[in-house]
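User: Fold this, then the next.

Assistant: Folding the first:
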Amino acid sequence: MIIFFLIYAFIILFIFNTLTDKFCNKLEMNATKRANVFRVTNIMILILLVSSYVRVLNVMV
C-alpha cells in the first residue's frame, strides 16, 4: 500500500511542480520570488498528501 501511495505522491508533486514552473515562467518572476512560490506550493501539496494518507490508513483499519 505504501509503495503505491509513494508513487502517487511523486506523480502529484511532479505535476504540480511542472504547473508551478509554467506559471512562474509566464509571469516572468525573479529567482527569489520563484523559490518562495515553489516552497509554498510544495509544502501545501505535502500537507495534503500526508493528510490523505492518514485518512486512507484510518479507513483501512
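Now the next one, as you asked:
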Amino acid sequence: MTEGNQRINCMKCRHFYVTWDPQFPRGCRAFGFKTHALPSATVLSSSGKPCMNFEPKQTAGSAK
C-alpha cells in the first residue's frame, strides 16, 4: 500500500491504539502487540517489510 520508502502513519490506522503502559504506550490490534515505537516501525524492523494491515480510520464524514 505504500510506495518506496514512504512511512506508514499508525495514527491514521484503525488498528492503532494508545495503551496505559508507560513502557509500551502504543499498540496494534491487528498484530496484537504493544511497543514503545510506532507499530509500523516495529513491523518494518522485525520483518523487513512494511505493515500490510494498515486500514484508514473512518472519519465522521466517511461513515455515511
